[in-house]
Specification:
Layout: E1 4-8, E2 19-20, H1 30-44, E3 48-54, E4 62-63, E5 66-71, H2 79-92, E6 98-101, E7 116-119, H3 131-146, E8 150-153, H4 157-165, E9 173-175, E10 202-206, H5 216-228, E11 233-238, E12 241-242, H6 243-256, E13 262-266, H7 273-279, E14 282-285, H8 295-302, E15 307-310, H9 315-318, E16 327-330, H10 334-345, H11 348-365, H12 368-386
Parallel strand pairs: 1-3, 1-6, 3-5, 6-7, 7-8, 8-9, 10-11, 10-14, 11-13, 14-15, 15-16
Antiparallel strand pairs: 2-12, 4-5
């Protein structure tokens, strides 16, 4: 039976006002790639799909067969704009549609309108966050689960939280880790020069949006330590730039006089990303807070790259055992990150061994085929409940 799925997000396609370097027909990062994959899967299952997002001035109404509807909301401060968007979509969605919110943030205030939620890890683990913010976000979760919504979680941390705090709702949570195209993201030869990158002894790739939450500041601190220790390294920042956070990161680079050791590549279309993973010697995902099972990390693993992650969110599951699983897992601090990166910079043979293990792990656990199989089961459950 064909259902009409409506996928809710503030930004799916194009140029949000708080980022620079993204074209109107491009996906910003991992969250948007995951939403695209979800929409394609639902269409392959025979369902109709519409994505609803905030109006960013984009005129593209269809992307790869996915219908997009833009909703205008007032330019209000802070969370008020989010609430205004939610009230607007809740008034505009047909009663017979199945609602899949791409974040718990889109469920408020009328939680009962949502059938399914995508949860990328725990989003309230901000070290400097206020207790009020944490309580508000946990309240969203409580209300959404109480309304009966199912939750696709990208790692086990949200299920563990639900089992502890909302035991009666534990069967509503389905952990499904992200998957990637392991044919496109595979080991290949892409010389740095072919991508406009000057070769160095070690190229270290940070393939994330330029945000503090993603650990960009930790990476800068680690690069400064490696440079001061005499290593010929180049840190590659690849991703769209959050306007406010980018200023903080660039100020930090100025303080260290580090511009000879960094290069900003900007946003790269997703179908070109495999080239940059393969050109790099090492990849790092030094997330500071609010992480699921990082698509960028899995793509690097599939390309056979040794990597360093922090033990935040779903990254803990991508690397259960340091080195054995193809990467090194550390605490989200600059000294721990620089020590791990130095281990790989100083030992090319270790890099080769870990890269092969990373590829093997990606093929075993994080393929698109495995993700699709589990997500089909999940959405069939959502449809059955709605019926």
């Amino acid at each position: 039976m064909t259902e009409h799925f409506v996928l809710i997000t503030d930004t799916f396609l194009g140029n949000p006002d708080n980022y620079e370097g993204v074209e109107p027909d491009e996906l910003i990062g991992g969250a948007e790639i995951n939403l695209y994959q979800t929409a394609q899967l639902l269409m392959d299952m025979g369902h109709d799909v519409t994505v609803i997002q905030q109006d960013t001035g984009n005129e593209i109404e269809q992307y790869d067969g996915i219908d997009i509807e833009y909703l205008s909301v007032p330019d209000l401060p802070g969370r008020a704009k989010q609430v205004a968007f939610n009230l607007t979509w809740q008034r505009n969605v047909p009663d017979d549609a199945i609602i899949h919110a791409h974040s718990m943030d889109y469920t408020i205030p009328l939680f009962g309108r949502v059938d399914s939620v995508n949860q990328q890890g725990l989003t309230w683990d901000v070290p400097e966050g206020s207790g009020l913010t944490t309580r508000i976000k946990r309240h969203y979760v409580k209300r959404a689960l109480k309304s009966g919504a199912f939750v696709r979680a990208s790692d086990n941390s949200f299920l563990t939280y639900t089992q502890s705090e909302h035991t009666s709702a534990r069967n509503q949570v389905f952990p499904v880790p992200n998957g990637v195209d392991t044919d496109r993201f595979a080991p290949a030869d892409y010389p740095p020069e072919s991508l406009g990158i000057d070769p160095r002894s070690s190229l270290i790739l940070f393939p994330r949006t330029l945000r503090i939450a993603r650990g960009a500041h930790l990476f800068v601190d680690a690069l400064a330590t490696l440079r001061d220790n005499g290593y010929d390294i180049l840190g590659l920042f690849l991703g769209a730039e959050d306007i406010e956070d980018a200023e903080v990161v660039r100020d930090r680079i100025d303080q260290y006089n580090l511009y000879d050791s960094v290069k900003f590549l900007g946003h790269i279309p997703h179908d070109q990303m495999h080239k940059y993973y393969n050109a790099a010697d090492i990849v790092t995902i030094p997330t500071y807070h609010s992480e699921g099972s990082s698509i960028a990390c899995i793509e690097a693993m599939a390309c056979g790259k040794p990597f360093v992650v922090t033990d935040v969110g779903g990254l803990k599951e991508l690397v259960y055992q340091s080195e054995t699983d193809g990467g090194i897992k550390v605490k989200p601090t600059a000294p721990a990150l620089s020590d791990a990166l130095e281990t790989l910079v100083a030992n090319p043979e270790t890099r080769q061994i870990l890269g092969k293990r990373a590829r093997k792990r990606a093929l075993k656990y994080y393929t698109n085929e495995r993700w699709e199989e589990q997500m089909r089961t999940y959405f069939n459950t959502v449809v059955e409940k709605r019926g």
